[in-house]
Amino acid sequence: MATIPPLRATVAEVGGRIALVSVSGELDAFVESDLRDALGAAAALGSQTVVVDLSGVSFMDSTASGVLVAEAKRLWREGGHLVLVSNGHRASRVLEVSGIDQVLQVYSTLHAAFTELLPEPVR
Fold first, then answer.
1. How does residue 20 score in pLDDT terms, banded at 50, 70 and 90?
2. How many CA atoms lie within 13 A of 36 on its CB side?
3. Quick one: angle between helices 32-44 and 62-77, nearest 10?
4. What distance in Å separates the CA atoms of residue 96 and residue 56, rounded to the nearest whole number?
5. pTM score
6. Which of 25, 50, 105, 122 could form a disulfide with 83 if both were Cys (CB 3.0 to 4.6 A apart)?
7. Which of 53, 50, 66, 63 is closest to 92 using CA atoms?
């Protein structure tokens, strides 16, 4: 029997301007608090822009979608924004079906996101 990969989330600051949350594994109701904790750690960095990289996600349900939308709304109220990176795999389908890709900026690669969000090279 195959084992389900656990949620893994890492948080990093990029260029002093972006909080990056890289997520892999399955995003469902069982890991909702872990996802919220990772987004909270990103918020603690104080960046106006939070990038959530979903490229390593093997499954995503409506619970995770709800957490991402709630965080996007919170950031928007505070003058920031949340953007997503999804490389066309499973998470992309959920973003399309739920309409999230119509209200949040979704990039196909992390490079594309950083190219637009960090127009000047980080020194």
1. very high
2. 11
3. 20
4. 17
5. 0.89
6. 105
7. 53
For residues 31-58, average pLDDT: 94
Query: Domain tally for the chain?
Result: 1
pLDDT tens track for 80-107: 999 999 986 677 788 888 888 888 999 9
Whether 34 maps to a domain, the answer reads yes
Domain presence at residue 60: yes
Average pLDDT over residues 54-62: 90
Is 35 within a domain?
yes
Domain of residue 101, residue span? 8-117
Q: How many CA atoms lie within 13 A of 123 on its CB side?
A: 1
13 lies in some domain: yes
Q: Which pLDDT score, from 0 to 100, does residue 87 have?
A: 82
Contact by Cβ (8 Å): 52, 21: yes
